[in-house]
Amino acid sequence: MLPQVVIIGRPNVGKSTLFNRLVGKKLALVDDQPGVTRDRRFGDVELLGLKFQIVDTAGWEDEDAETLPGRMRQQTEAALVGAAAALFVIDSRAGLTPLDEEIARWLQRTSVPVTVVANKAEGKAGDSGIFESYALGLGDPVAMSAEHGEGVADLFEALLPILDPLQPDEHAVELGEDEEKPLGPLQLAIVGRPNAGKSTLINQLLREDRLLTGPEAGITRDSIAIDWVWHDPKLGEDRRVKLIDTAGMRKRAKVTDKLEKLAVADARHAVDFAEVVVLLLDATKGLEHQDLKIAAHVVEEGRALIVAINKWDVAEDPSGLFNGIRHALDEGLAQVKGVPLVAVSARTGKGLDNLLGAAFETRDIWNRRVPTAALNRWFDDAMAANPPPAPGGKRIKLRYITQTGARPPRFVIFGTRLDDLPASYERYLVNSMRRDLGFGSVPVRIMLRSPKNPYAKS
């Protein structure tokens, strides 16, 4: 069960607009006239990786319990029973009203943690209402504009300490372990230049001539997806795979035929839906610039990358070739240094079990989540070992980090003066994370968030 967060406030302060903003869809009716919402409405939210159920409620009105507004208020009161948190929405442009103060007194009598949301705070028109909201005695307000999406990161920061301990099991699994929610079939796309042997490799895995192959380059046009079961010799069990064959990707300048353009576009589209992408090289041609461009595209799309050298059975100077490609990959793909490199032969089947094993291991890393506590222990150690710089003598404060998602791993760092944080320090954090938390060579995304402070100049 997801923890519930209930939106409460008097009519026409923007509760349903906030509900729609958090859910990401226009589920709740919104209108300028008050009292549009009457019943509770539920929606699932994932806010920067924080999962909860949001509850929209009717506007609170001080009416007799037997009247329609009174019964609506009873629905709102019932919604708070068992809730993990409440968002008390006020209209910062209108300022506090006696009804706001009455709602605040009622909320103070409950045991539910309350966050005041000063809505309609875009521009400076809401500043006075924001200051007035401190008088409610419910802590620091979160200045927001639900209509324009401003202040969402600050709302996340306010809810994180309340909701993080209540997250579903899959949010707080140990590194690499997720027994509650087993992964589906491995979505494995094979990409590369024309005639690298992509279709031949898939036929060898299937042990049948499932795909058309031949010496001509560019036989494959459509991206073909095939469901298959691989027997893992190490685990002694069957594992499901969806193999995706793609068209060869030549240099863009050489692609003039309309069908080839469509085929290459389809191949790029297949990358977007894959989990792990195997870039297949031709051992007789080595690593070319176009291969690095394909690899860079895979990484930019956030997919896990493996490089396989095909036609290993006919390679000249195999050791020198392998080491040369390893060095060129580390130089050309510095952002994912150490990407897995496997030697295979699609013709004989050599190395294919190693390739599949590496693909499953890489997906596990790509899908990994780190508990917030462990993540922040690493964060503190990383900053202690190499503190953030102080450009102009002013310290850059990095407060904490949280993982907002996986597939690929995504993180948000909160702090102040983050616009001045050098890219070199971001790279340091990413490289330390790869080394210390076991993220290896999968793409890692870090976002920097500085909470807006409307009182900084006061």
Automatic annotation (TrEMBL):
Gene giving rise to this polypeptide: der
Keywords: GTP-binding, Nucleotide-binding, Repeat, Ribosome biogenesis
Cited Pfam families: KH_dom-like (PF14714), MMR_HSR1 (PF01926)
Binding of GTP 1, residues: 9-16, 56-60, 119-122
Protein name (Swiss-Prot/TrEMBL): GTPase Der
Function: GTPase that plays an essential role in the late steps of ribosome biogenesis.
Biological processes, Gene Ontology terms: ribosome biogenesis
GO molecular-function term, one example from the UniProt record: GTP binding
